[in-house]
Amino acid sequence: MQGEIDDYGSAKLVGEGHLSLERFRMILQRDRIRAAARAQLFKGMAENRIVVFLNKQVAYAGHVSFCAPEGESPLGPIRLTIESSNPVGIIDWITGGYEPRVKR
């Protein structure tokens, strides 16, 4: 991953390949929110790009919570942008594909 800070003090991290999203994927799996994440990622998908916003305080604690671009995260949200020629494939990989819930 490579990082840079713009004139406004905002950080931008850039990574390539699946490994740059591995930690995000593992947190979704650990916190058992893959289905909710899948829905949010599909909502944020447009052509070859996925854009979602994450709560900064929750991310600092090592978890993932999706939020609106404004108003829901007191410190401001983290904007996650994923660019891919196959965004559906990326969503499937991040969330483990579609698995309907089975009542036990």
For the termini, the CA-CA separation is: 42 Å
The topology string of helices and strands comes to: EEHHEEHEEH
Residue windows where pLDDT falls under 50 for at least 5 positions = none
CA radius of gyration = 14 Å
Categorize the overall geometry: globular
Going by CATH, the architecture would be 2-Layer Sandwich
By DSSP, the count of extended strands is 6
What does this protein structure show overall?
With 104 residues, the chain is of the alpha+beta class. It has one domain: Ribosomal protein L5 (50s Ribosomal Protein L5, Chain: A). It is 32% helix and 25% strand. It contains four helices and six strands, in the order E-E-H-H-E-E-H-E-E-H. Strands 3, 4, 5 and 6 form a four-stranded antiparallel β-sheet that branches. The mean pLDDT is 88.
Could you give the topology of this structure?
Elements: E1 2-5, E2 11-14, H1 22-30, H2 34-43, E3 45-46, E4 49-55, H3 56-60, E5 66-67, E6 77-83, H4 87-95
Antiparallel strand pairs: 1-2, 3-4, 4-5, 4-6
Helix pairs in contact: 2-4
What are its keywords?
50s Ribosomal Protein L5, Chain: A; two-stranded antiparallel sheet; four-stranded antiparallel β-sheet; 104 residues; alpha+beta; 6 strands
Quick recap of the structure?
The chain is α+β, with helices and mostly antiparallel strands. It has helices at residues 22-30, 34-43, 56-60, 87-95, and strands at 2-5, 11-14, 45-46, 49-55, 66-67, 77-83.
